[in-house]
Amino acid sequence: MTKTLFSRMRSLQWWVLIYMTFGVICDVPAQNASSHEWWKHAIIYEIYPRSFQDSNADGVGDLNGITQRMQYLQDLGVDAIWIAPMYPSPQVDFGYDISDYRNVDPQFGTIADFDRLVSEARKHRVAVIVDMVLNHTSDQHPWFVAAASARANPKHDWYVWSDGKRNANGDIVPPNNWQSVFGGSAWEWVPEVQQFYYHAYYKQQPDLNWRNPQVEKAMFDVMRFWLDRGVAGFRLDSISELFEDPRLRDAPRLEGLNALGNPQLDPGYTTNLPEIHETIRRMRAMVSAYPGDRVLIGEVYFPNIAELDKWYGGARHNEIQLPMDLPLGYLNELDANAFRKRLWEVYTQVHGSTPLLVFDNHDVNRSWDRYGDGVHNAAIAKLIAALLLTSRDTALLYQGQEIGQRTVEPRRIEDVKDPIGKIHWPVYKGRDGERTPMQWDSDDAQSGFSTSPHPWLPVPADYTTVNVRTELADPRSLLNWYKQLISLRRSNAAVRNGRVVMLDKTNANVLSYARVAKDGTAVLVALNMSAQPQSVSFHLSEANIRRSHLTNLMTSPEQDAGSSSVSPVRLAPFGVWIEAVE
Length: 582
Ligand code: NOJ
Description:
CATH architecture of the largest domain: Alpha-Beta Barrel
Helix content: 25-40%
Mean pLDDT: 93
Strand order of the largest sheet: 14-13-10-4-3-2-16-15
CATH topology of the largest domain: TIM Barrel
CATH class of the largest domain: Alpha Beta
Bound molecules: 1-deoxynojirimycin
Number of strands: 23
Number of helices: 16
Strand content: 15-25%
CATH superfamily of the largest domain: Glycosidases
């Protein structure tokens, strides 16, 4: 399955989007990034702690492992790491089911290890962002245990309950047709209180009731706890789902089935309810009261760019600084027109806010496989990297993306770790494929991830060639390509913060744009999104670029290293050409 559960289940609204007509003059201004707005051109690196580095030989990655690899992160050039949940948890959803928001799960370390990680990261000029799961807790969290014990318990109203309704046979059934993202009804019966509770995800992840002000207070206190420990911000998990329709109305049926074979439902009663924005504005005000411009990153799903704009707070810019533009990274097809159109929409329709471009994370098959055509995957991976790091967007990359790790799915159901993979096998094999251990070296079968012979997920067999150490030694490797791009983005004013001018705007095969700095210097980028060689010509004066001295900065494949001419530029299949204009 090349597309993932997450992208497929939530993509329907996207595939039916009617895009706005592409603008004639494709030129958007630079962002006004002050030094306080460090996140505006940052490179953020997602760490899935179970799979990054094991420091105590138990086969599971941990916080001390991340600390050990801090030099690698600094050398790569990332500004911040986002660490997926490391809090105490029964690990049903591998940490996204939290049972204590103010501690660290023993398998990942201790709170002292966390403090040490933050302080080491600071020495390496890497900011630490933590995941914050606000939509739901674990069913083992003391709040839920209390809530489920009696209707009269003060915590009862902290979750979303319903008495259900009677069906034709007189049986009590869930109040509506809402479905869990992971399949089946989103309602679970609790005999002790004779009610159903709502869970957008697994039944072990009951949804909190954000209409109760005590919930907001408790969760903001939790966020303060981590802000006080020095975190640079939060990645807000499933934040679009914070509120549900208070009348619990049935979701209208849409055409077709989702990836799990369940009916496709209109998400309007469970996702993106307008009430969320008031909560987020209060959250932003609370977080912004801290020094250092702490950042909110949102895992948001949205039906159109106007809804994305709302996540930023529109013209007021007072909500989430970086809602993820997941639909762009999940286009899953190299289509120059589609990328041009979507990039342009987001550059022009979010009141100058900063898009956050994401191709990879722990929920989707790796971009190597989603975008690869089976023949040119290595060239395509370099192209994706170039787009990610020369665009005007803040860039998010996921561990292993920089070395070209593949999606390696379990072969047998008994090997599956992600529960949805077991439930839906073989239609959907879960998310283990994109969560395999980081491949550091080729010394032994654990590839430097662990000294345990039994890592929690097996290290993929290609570790002998696809690993950090081997790629560092190869000037043409994907890893060195990433490092060069990151250093270009850090050092070149045009790439870092220049305005964007779309070039050659009707070319269906090649996406080209210029980043133009205030002093008029520019960087031209041409990405051949086709399997055929392409030739493109640029007329810089039409793009208002007055300079004319050209220097080739980067080219892929390397043997094609660029003629410093813009008429024409020849691009190999899936080739990349990056040129300075001074
Ligand atoms: C999104 C997370 O990325 C995913 O891993 C998790 O299963 C759900 N939210 C539920 O928390």
